User: Fold this.
Amino acid sequence: MKTDESRPKENPPTKSPSSEIVSFFTSVQTTVVLLFLLAAASIIGTVVPQQESIEELAGRVSPFVLKLIVILDLNTMFSSWWYLLLLALMAANLMGCLFQRVPGLLEDWRNPSGRKSFGFTHVEPVPPAEAVGIVQEKLRPIMGAPEQEDKDSEPGSVKLTFVRHRLFLLGFPLIHTAIVVILAGGLMGLMYGYKGQITIREGETKRTFVIPADRSVRPLPFELALDNFTLLRYPNGAPKEYRSDVRIIRNGAILMKESIRVNHPITIDGLSLYQANYRSLGVEGAILELTGVDGEPQTVTVKSGGSAKVRGTDYSVRLLQGLSSGSLGQGVEVEISGPDGKTRVAQLFQGAPKPVALNGVGLKFKDFDILYSSGLQVGYDPGTPVVWIGCTLLIIGFVFALFLNLRALTVVVSPASGGSRIVVGGRSRRLRRDFRETVEQALTGTGASEES
Amino acid sequence: MTSLDLTTYVTFGYLACAVLGLVGFVAGKENSALRRAPFVLLIILWIAHTAAIGLRWHESYEMGIGRVPLSNLYESLVFFAWSFALAVILVVWRFKLDLLAVVGVPLIFLIMGSTFLVDPDIEPLIPALQSNWLAAHVITCFLGYAGFAVSFVAAALLLILGGSAEAPGRLNRTILDEVVYRSILVGFPMLTIGIITGAAWADYAWGSYWSWDPKETWSLITWLVYAGFLHARLAGGWTGTRTAVLSLVGFAAVLFTYFGVNYLSGLHAYL
Assistant:
């Protein structure tokens, strides 16, 4: 990065319009005003229902409020021109502040002890060559090894430079760059991303999805087949799992056979499919439970109007109608055909005390086989990885800024009557007094020393 | 003993601690046993509080449900009180500011007391909450809230008592001002990480890291207010009364993010 090394000059007494614009974008006052403006504006977006059409809102609000909503896009406020403008100003202000501070930061990075916050002088009763070693030994527990050891301008003098936690300096630029990166990622999503919906019945194959915002239909880059939708419940009736078993097909070949669950989406070519909702379309048949047979499955599914063989017997059942009994719960009426061609009608209930016996195999009603349609959400957002990069930078920036503390010391050891004079200059970004006291304690053995 | 019993004992323990704290503050001399006792009691209560949360976690496994106790209003209140108590302990210990506990502990008791009005049953998780992001998201958010709560208490004290920079100990304005600022300095990154983990989770569950649902938006409003606070303080040179007022505004946003949003429709309907 090539930057001007000199610190930005003070504004000239007469402000030109351009310098006023520059100071608007580099001022922290602007930042504070923008932060509070964004906060206040965002409140509106939580009070006015978002993504509702003007027609829907018209019946509920007064004509004046409706006009305001229309003019300021308050029903799609977070993508309205003026909210985006506020965000753009925020980004411009952030970058302005960053650029203004980069030269100073580079200077600090190169020479962290340049800006000293304290200094003192101390005398060691040994010659300088020996004193340098003593100083290094005494400071090692606090400051580690010296970063630089130079000859000082004064003849016979040595200058030692110690720096700890230089990365602290990166905290501020990282945090602020991160916000700009996150905003850029958000903008990418807004421009190139989309969100759609697919409603798909069990057994169906879909090639399109719908964008809810404008109800437009778009093609999927593959075929999506829903083999089965499962709704599992806890004993208390609360939902435990929604699962869509799907196949992704392209050019007749199955690319993927996967289950989509809430919190477990699948992604193909950057396009993600999420479990969003479901609907039951009606009863397709009944699931009967078998007892007294070995191996899986322990159930048999009979479709409405169809018949099915009962595993482990020569019997088959045909579904006649659904039943409901007050004491025995839900059930079905079935026609059972035996090997001899004889048929009989039986009623099977969920709460029946005994299963119907067919040659040692018990038959009981388990549940209705419900035809579901699954609601999947389609999402494509090329900005997401950018946002995650920004978030990572933000967290690293906070760690640097909060858990590190830049400390720098320069120690000049020069010959003096009675030994060596040791001139110490130091700096600490936080806990300044603590740092100063620790250094003095280490070098002089006492807290007291002469001020420089 | 069930976790519910232990939580009840802890709740009334906080009440006792609040009374003892007030008595100690009014009647006890500096560094007397009467002044120190409430702080020791507070630490013991906090350990018991931790145990109660751990016990509830254990009970959920015994019930065959097995989940972190951080997923409904009851559990969030218990955890909020826990984080708040932790923050009070740290500030009292670090800044020798026992006045903060005198005001803070009654508030902790009120939060714990409010759990009696909420259904405490351990229910299994609905599909949307079955995620590893749950714990990280809830813990970071509430640690942030705790920092903001402590800042709020210090700011309220600063505004009510006025105080002066010279007064030693209990009414020292400089220390209160420092607490107002420092606790936000810790709470803010926590809230930031809470929002980021929430966004990551939302991306997994709903296919979008940010949907502008009211809870998300209010967490952003809260974040913006505290970001404004930090810039006003660090770069604008604001201190004392002005930053204290900002801290109050910020905490109002926190409370609305936590409770008020339930009156607006949105995706966070389970909390």
In short: The radius of gyration of chain A is 38 Å. Chain A touches chain B through 46 residues (CB under 8 Å). Residues 1-12, 448-452 of chain A have pLDDT under 50 and may be disordered. The first strand of chain A starts at residue 118 and ends at 124.
